[in-house]
Amino acid sequence: MTAKNKLSEETIAIIKSTVPVLAEHGEAITKQFYHLLFTNHPELLHMFNHVNQSEGKQQRALAQSIYAAAAHIDKLDEILPVVKQIAHKHRSLQVKAEHYPIVGKYLLIAMKDVLQEAATDEILDAWGEAYSVIADVFIAVEKEMYEEAENQAGGWEGFRSFLVIDKVKESEVITSFYLQPADGERLASYRPGQYVSVKAIIEEEEYNHIRQYSLSEVPGRHYYRISVKREDGRETPAGIVSNYLHHSIEPGDKVELTAPAGDFFFDKASSRPAVFLSGGVGQTPLVSMFKTAAEDSPTKDITYIHAALNSSVHAFDQEIRDTADRNEKISYYLCYELPNESDKQKKVYDKEGFIDEEWLNSLAVSRDAEFYFCGPLPFMKAMYSILKEWGVPEERTHFEFFGPSDNLEREDNKH
């Protein structure tokens, strides 16, 4: 897919002139935008994560996207990777072409509301024209994704009903759900690391809730497995969907899923060593990648490093150990921030505290590897900083955010 720039030089110049303004007022604009959007189209609340809205994460992510679009308006091809990443989420949430004019309308109104007299007719007209071009790119990319999801073997359009065939407690906070199509028909495959969207229809909730969960098992099984951390609200707002799944969904129940999506997946074609770095529940896509690498590339050097609070919240430890024990080319290391007494007695971990550069150097982690990492934002910032310090190029640095995208360049290395 190639972005075809249909904008005049004058329009491009006007859009680029607004970049400093967007850097300063971008989040105020997106906050006003979402207010207007949901006030006038409350039905769209069925699509959005309300917690991300309340915490301002979605507003920040959209502001960053608008800023990037403005900065690269003369070279839209440069942001196609980001477009495709967002398009995967849109497809999984069932964002359709008819939604784009609605978004464009309230985005321009929000710009006018926030910037007031600085938002001249000339600027608003230029942004209206630019939005139309950018929307066309998204619509075209997503059209291809919708067709691929539906037309693949075992694929489907929209939401499909799945039967919960098993429910397994993996740790004190993480539970796995094993899912098979309720219609008994074929199951679409996926790339290790991809996710599905789960629609939760909760009786006491005014709106449906959709959440993305990574597929935590190797592709090709007769089931999907999602592994869900229960967000109990001690540090963040209680997870509506995670608590619903943990407390209300049992084997025999049904859930609604969209087809697998996502651009964060294991590159089977690479001959380089593979290093997987995970923090907390960020291990779910990496478990699928790691086990796939172990099965498909038994001669590849593979390193799996996981960080958790302690063993009580650590899932899949035995599953990963069993895989590692079968292949001398695999190395597995654990870092516990606050090991409990049992952990200390059994010495089940390799490092206490946080993953840091000094420890990774002591493990002789190959800097020539493909690196995959996922976890809480502070963890991801720390891993990104280490890999950047090592000089690992961007094309070998693979990561995914659980939730709206953020900036890994910020100075915050505590994890």
UniProtKB/TrEMBL annotation:
<keyword id="KW-0408">Iron</keyword>
<dbReference type="InterPro" id="IPR017927">
    <property type="entry name" value="FAD-bd_FR_type"/>
</dbReference>
<keyword id="KW-0560">Oxidoreductase</keyword>
<feature type="site" description="Influences the redox potential of the prosthetic heme and FAD groups">
    <location>
        <position position="89"/>
    </location>
</feature>
<dbReference type="InterPro" id="IPR039261">
    <property type="entry name" value="FNR_nucleotide-bd"/>
</dbReference>
<feature type="site" description="Influences the redox potential of the prosthetic heme and FAD groups">
    <location>
        <position position="400"/>
    </location>
</feature>
<keyword id="KW-0813">Transport</keyword>
<keyword id="KW-0274">FAD</keyword>
<feature type="domain" description="Globin">
    <location>
        <begin position="6"/>
        <end position="143"/>
    </location>
</feature>
<dbReference type="InterPro" id="IPR001433">
    <property type="entry name" value="OxRdtase_FAD/NAD-bd"/>
</dbReference>
<keyword id="KW-0521">NADP</keyword>
<keyword id="KW-0216">Detoxification</keyword>
<comment type="similarity">
    <text>In the C-terminal section; belongs to the flavoprotein pyridine nucleotide cytochrome reductase family.</text>
</comment>
<dbReference type="InterPro" id="IPR012292">
    <property type="entry name" value="Globin/Proto"/>
</dbReference>
<comment type="function">
    <text>Is involved in NO detoxification in an aerobic process, termed nitric oxide dioxygenase (NOD) reaction that utilizes O(2) and NAD(P)H to convert NO to nitrate, which protects the bacterium from various noxious nitrogen compounds. Therefore, plays a central role in the inducible response to nitrosative stress.</text>
</comment>
<dbReference type="Pfam" id="PF00970">
    <property type="entry name" value="FAD_binding_6"/>
</dbReference>
<feature type="site" description="Involved in heme-bound ligand stabilization and O-O bond activation">
    <location>
        <position position="34"/>
    </location>
</feature>
<dbReference type="InterPro" id="IPR000971">
    <property type="entry name" value="Globin"/>
</dbReference>
<dbReference type="InterPro" id="IPR017938">
    <property type="entry name" value="Riboflavin_synthase-like_b-brl"/>
</dbReference>
<dbReference type="Pfam" id="PF00042">
    <property type="entry name" value="Globin"/>
</dbReference>
<feature type="active site" description="Charge relay system">
    <location>
        <position position="100"/>
    </location>
</feature>
<feature type="active site" description="Charge relay system">
    <location>
        <position position="142"/>
    </location>
</feature>
<keyword id="KW-0349">Heme</keyword>
<dbReference type="InterPro" id="IPR008333">
    <property type="entry name" value="Cbr1-like_FAD-bd_dom"/>
</dbReference>
<feature type="binding site" description="proximal binding residue">
    <location>
        <position position="90"/>
    </location>
    <ligand>
        <name>heme b</name>
    </ligand>
</feature>
<dbReference type="Pfam" id="PF00175">
    <property type="entry name" value="NAD_binding_1"/>
</dbReference>
<feature type="binding site">
    <location>
        <begin position="211"/>
        <end position="214"/>
    </location>
    <ligand>
        <name>FAD</name>
    </ligand>
</feature>
<dbReference type="InterPro" id="IPR023950">
    <property type="entry name" value="Hmp"/>
</dbReference>
<comment type="similarity">
    <text>Belongs to the globin family. Two-domain flavohemoproteins subfamily.</text>
</comment>
<protein>
    <recommendedName>
        <fullName>Flavohemoprotein</fullName>
        <ecNumber>1.14.12.17</ecNumber>
    </recommendedName>
</protein>
<feature type="binding site">
    <location>
        <begin position="401"/>
        <end position="404"/>
    </location>
    <ligand>
        <name>FAD</name>
    </ligand>
</feature>
<keyword id="KW-0285">Flavoprotein</keyword>
<keyword id="KW-0479">Metal-binding</keyword>
<feature type="region of interest" description="Reductase">
    <location>
        <begin position="154"/>
        <end position="415"/>
    </location>
</feature>
<dbReference type="GO" id="GO:0008941">
    <property type="term" value="F:nitric oxide dioxygenase NAD(P)H activity"/>
</dbReference>
<keyword id="KW-0561">Oxygen transport</keyword>
<feature type="binding site">
    <location>
        <begin position="280"/>
        <end position="285"/>
    </location>
    <ligand>
        <name>NADP(+)</name>
    </ligand>
</feature>
<dbReference type="InterPro" id="IPR009050">
    <property type="entry name" value="Globin-like_sf"/>
</dbReference>
<feature type="binding site">
    <location>
        <position position="195"/>
    </location>
    <ligand>
        <name>FAD</name>
    </ligand>
</feature>
<feature type="domain" description="FAD-binding FR-type">
    <location>
        <begin position="157"/>
        <end position="267"/>
    </location>
</feature>
<keyword id="KW-0520">NAD</keyword>
